[in-house]
Amino acid sequence: MKKLAVLCMALLLIVSTMAGCNSKPAEGDASTVILQEGYTLQSIIDKMNEEIGIQMPMTVDDAVLEDIFHVNPDDIEEYYGIFGGSMTSADNAVAVKAKEGKADAVAESLNQRLEDVRASFEQYLPDQGEKAKKGQVIQKGDYVFLVIIGQDYDTFDSDMEKAQGFINEAFGS
């Protein structure tokens, strides 16, 4: 039993370490990363909500983006996001197109939100805490996404993979 617990903790450590990694292109490639025709930031986030679901979805507005997601409005061109409107949900799905040269600052802000969500569920609602641990900030050039999504403890990994697939599809990668 002790070996199983140690193995589970090691696996959790590996997964959480990988979840914190950003996907981003080499220096100087940010301007060449563009959304495929027919995709918008809203269409990507809406697809996540439709296919995976967000508990009691609320739309991110300017005040929420700045106050809760820590994003400086001067650093962005556009955004769209929804988050769980219940205190019992860790769900967050936000897409931001940063101004040129500001993607790292936006990623840092969204990573702060990710850490805030992780901390808020660390000792409260273990399933939502586990979902938050699997959350990711994903960077594609000037586009930055925060994704904490999943319907069930058993599907958190596959739901996150599906969400990342929606993002990759939108960029043709």
Automatic annotation (TrEMBL):
Signal sequence bounds: 1-19
Sorted keywords for this record are: Signal
Highest taxon listed in the record's lineage: Bacteria
What InterPro entries does the annotation carry?
DUF4358
Query: Could you tell me what this protein is called?
Result: DUF4358 domain-containing protein
Instruction: Tell me the organism.
Output: Youxingia wuxianensis
